[in-house]
Every structure is written in structure tokens, then in C-alpha cells.
Design a protein that fits this description.
eight-stranded mixed beta sheet; about 15% strand; alpha/beta; 12 helices; globular; 14 strands; single chain; about 35% helix; three-stranded antiparallel beta sheet
């Protein structure tokens, strides 16, 4: 069996060990410490917000954001449907009810048309959501101008799930900074990693102080161990934060590498009739965390699942796009608002979508293998492998 080509594997810079060694030398092994403090400052500076709080995962950061917004059992929270389940699970943690919003074609993200339908109906029913979770899918910013305007109109705060989009920009502004709270993930497959971890960012410094309090078991200011509210064990360790500091130093290189991978795929496969790569919204700059595309079934005589299976035979990992959350058994019965009732965009993207290996440590030789196998399966000429700019 040939060496496996992963969808998106961790990519170490070589500098991580120095930060880890510093943590060991100074005995900052327990959670929190200088690396955590520095990592928070550096992330806040990078995305140009007032503060950041490091967490054990992006999911934990979303949960804290909902807690800070006082989301509870009688509330609803609107959420993008085309996303990983971690975007919506925290809604269930708070015992609130999720309502799912369809995608639109331009970004694959939350549809302003569908959101307006949902907000209008909620207003008429006298029950606006306590929050809207807007996801930036595969590193692509949603249509933030339109979405922010709608949420402002109805007075509903935004939690921007930028778990996949660190290093992306919308009209010059960093991803994750358009809502009351922004969330990043440093899971092993993300653009940069701490192996597991996340970050909650905001311009509300007092709110993030409360987030840190809740994330460290909500211990009251007393000599003895006293607790007045429910807390969580959600803080990032000092060792893992050291990994994050080294990773952040090479973020721009990682984005550039992934965009080059995307460009090479487009150059070699983009002219195949029926292959449609995820677009990039005008005046935005995506990190291209994953290269994604759709296969038009009227033009391509193989489904994404069949192509995934053929790639797997060559030890190449590819995946479908996320299954929409309104289609998940866990959320059966939850409300869903479509962009167009005659064409459910998120469902079509799920049926036709494909994620290709996109790691920043992917070699050109590995990518050539992926492209050759796809062209072989599709039955087109062999690739020319011109260098992608």
C-alpha cells in the first residue's frame, strides 16, 4: 500500500518544540501559564480585536459564547445548516432549540434570503432568537454585510463560527470579527493546530473575563473553593498554547500553501465539464482550508461517493461536504428555512459536493497523484501539471 494522502493533516513548523521546552523548563505544565497569555494576545492582535480567551476546543468557545448571551431552555438559536455538528451541539448544551438556515450559492454559507424569512416569521410570532450562529465554511467568509445588517435590524447578536477560516478576510477585515463573539478552532486538521483547542474572541473585554471565569470551573473569589454558578473545564493547556504560538508564526505561509493547492486543482481539473469549484466571494480572501467542488450529475457520470471510493483504493482520503444539520437524525423535527423551496441549496451541495486532499504539507507529487487518479476515473486526458501561482 502506498503512503496515505490525508485530507488535511497537521503541519508542524519545527518551532513548536522550543515553546514546549520552555513550558517544561519553567514547570508550567498545568493548565494556563505564559504561553496561554501570549497566545491570546497574539490571536487578538492578529484579528484586530480587544481580547481573546483560549479554550479546550472551538465547540467549548461556542458554548461559552451562548452562555454569555444567556441562552437557555425557552430560547431559540438560528444556525447555518451546512456545517459540522460542533456548530450546533452547544445549542443543545444550553437546552435551547436550534433553527437551521439554508445556504446560498455564492459562498455556500448562510443565505441572507433564508435568514430574513426566519427573522421575519420569528418577529411576527413574538419570539426572536437569542443568537445567530453564522459559519464560514471551508475557510470562506459568509455574506457578512447582508447578514450583519439583518441581525442588527432585528437586534439579534451574532456568534461567528470561524473555526475553519482563521487567516481569511472579508473586505479587508479578519474573519471571526463581525459578531458579538467570534470562534476559532485549532483541531488537528485546521489551518493551524494546537492538536486540540479553540479561541473565543470579542471586543467586549468584560464578557471575555466572564468567559475565563466560566471556563475555569466558575470558582468564586474566595480562599476556599466556592462556586455559585455552573462552570466548565474549558481552558487550553499551557503546553498546547505553546504549539499554537509557533503555528501562528507561519499562518500566512499555511494560507498561501493551501491556496496554491486549490489553484493547482482548478488549473488541472477546472475545465472538466461539470466540475465546479467552490467560488470566492468578491472582495474576500479565503484561506482555502479545504479544496471543495461539486460534480454536476447531468455532466459527470460518477457521483462524489463513487469518486471517494476510487480515490480510497489508492490510499487517498477524500470526503463529502458536511451533511446539512437539518437532515441529521439528532435534529429531526427542528425548523429549517430554505433559500428557495424548489432548490434546497445545502442539500444539493451535500449530494454533489466533494472535499479533496488540501493539506499545506501536501507535496506536488502527492497532488499530481490525486489529479491523475481523478482524470483516470473521469476518463479525460492526463494532466499537464503546470505550476500553480
Amino acid at each position: 500500500m502506498s503512503e496515505r494522502i490525508f485530507l488535511s493533516s497537521p503541519h508542524m513548523s519545527g518551532k513548536e518544540q522550543s515553546y514546549i521546552e520552555e513550558a517544561f523548563t519553567t514547570n508550567w505544565i498545568a493548565p494556563l501559564g505564559p504561553n496561554v497569555d501570549a497566545f491570546e494576545r497574539q490571536i487578538a492582535d492578529y484579528v484586530e480585536v480587544a481580547d481573546a480567551a483560549a479554550t479546550s476546543s472551538g465547540t467549548a468557545a461556542i458554548h461559552l459564547a451562548l452562555q454569555l448571551l444567556e441562552v437557555g431552555e425557552e430560547d431559540t438559536v438560528f444556525c447555518s445548516t451546512l456545517t459540522f455538528i460542533a456548530s450546533a451541539n452547544p445549542i443543545l448544551y444550553t437546552r435551547a432549540t436550534p433553527v437551521f438556515i439554508d445556504s446560498e450559492e455564492t459562498t455556500w454559507n448562510m443565505s441572507p434570503v433564508a435568514l430574513e424569512k426566519a427573522l421575519t416569521e420569528a418577529k411576527q410570532n413574538g419570539k426572536l432568537p437569542k443568537a445567530v450562529i453564522i459559519v464560514n465554511l471551508y475557510g470562506q467568509s459568509a455574506m457578512m454585510d447582508e447578514l450583519v445588517a439583518l441581525c442588527d435590524k432585528y437586534g439579534v447578536p451574532i456568534v461567528e463560527d470561524a473555526a475553519e477560516s482563521l487567516g481569511s478576510f472579508y473586505k479587508g477585515k479578519p474573519s471571526g470579527t463581525f459578531g458579538k463573539f467570534g470562534v476559532f478552532s485549532f483541531n488537528g486538521n485546521k489551518i493551524i493546530t494546537t492538536s486540540g483547542g479553540g479561541m473565543l474572541v470579542s471586543n467586549d473585554v468584560e464578557a471575555l473575563k466572564q468567559a475565563r471565569f466560566l471556563a475555569t470551573q466558575a470558582r468564586d473569589a474566595a480562599v476556599h473553593y466556592q462556586h455559585s454558578v455552573v462552570g466548565y473545564n474549558y481552558r487550553l493547556s499551557n503546553i498546547l498554547a505553546g504549539v499554537g504560538r509557533a503555528q501562528l508564526e507561519v499562518l500566512s505561509e499555511r494560507v498561501s500553501a493551501r491556496r496554491s493547492v486549490f489553484n493547482r486543482y482548478v488549473k488541472e481539473l477546472g475545465e472538466i465539464d461539470g466540475f465546479n469549484f467552490m467560488p470566492e466571494l468578491e472582495d474576500t480572501y479565503g484561506n482555502r482550508w479545504l479544496t471543495t467542488l461539486t460534480l454536476d450529475p447531468s455532466k459527470v457520470k460518477i457521483s462524489p461517493y463513487e469518486l471517494i471510493e476510487e480515490l480510497s483504493k489508492e490510499n487517498i482520503e477524500a470526503r463529502p461536504v458536511w451533511k446539512p444539520l437539518h437532515m441529521q437524525p439528532l435534529f429531526k423535527g427542528c425548523k429549517f428555512y430554505a433559500h428557495d423551496e424548489k432548490d434546497i441549496v445545502s442539500e444539493r451541495l451535500f449530494e454533489q459536493g466533494l472535499c479533496l486532499p488540501s493539506g499545506s504539507n501536501m507535496t506536488q507529487e502527492q497532488q499530481e497523484k490525486v489529479i491523475s487518479k481523478i482524470k483516470q476515473v473521469i476518463g479525460v486526458e492526463k494532466p499537464s501539471f503546470q505550476s500553480a501561482e
